[in-house]
Amino acid sequence: MADAYESRGYDFIAFTDHDYLLKQNYMDVYRQVKTGMIVFYGIELSVFVNGNIHVAKIEGNRNVLHIFNHIGEYDFTPDQLLIRLVALEKMYPLDAVEITKKGFRDKVFESLDIAYPKIASDDSHTLTGVGRAWVEMDAQRDKDSIIKAIRQGDFWNCYLS
């Protein structure tokens, strides 16, 4: 997967997997990836807030990024989602909200009035999804600078047309 992103010019990638799927040696597997990109590692936490939702916990060097994942995939109305967001922010220090569905735009959730940066991602699990959505930013090429830019909303969401 990393090769597919690197060949498209990506500077960084975040590998995450669901907490209930992680094998004991998952970090050893991630560390075998050879790439010139910055590689973030994280866990997609399963959280129950009036239904099962996911929060990505992505490690930097000193900082940790928490993203409320793929909000358009839960089959919630915007109002139901906002109720869950209020409960979720009491549990985790949220930094951003992912507004895409497997890399496709969702105008309803894109237009939500929330206090968090809205981030695009292709959430690709296979090569066919690689490069549907990504973020671009002007930041130093290190994990904590990238996390800081995301927290501040200092990035652009980009989509394959």
Describe this structure in words.
The chain has 161 residues and is of the alpha/beta class. It has a single domain (2-159), classed as Metal-dependent hydrolases (TIM Barrel). 22% of the residues lie in helices and 27% in strands. The strands form two sheets. It has a six-stranded mixed beta sheet. Strands 7-8 form a two-stranded antiparallel ribbon. Strand 2 and strand 3 form a beta hairpin. The relative contact order is 0.16.
| Tally of alpha and pi helices | 5
Strand order of the largest sheet: 1-2-3-4-5-6
According to CATH, the fold-level topology is TIM Barrel
| Percentage of residues in DSSP E strands | 25-35%
Tell me the domain tally: 1
Outline type: globular
Q: What's the CATH C level?
A: Alpha Beta
Query: Helix amount, in percent?
Result: 10-25%
Largest sheet: 6 strands, mixed
Rg, Cα atoms, Å = 15 Å
Distance between the termini: 21 Å
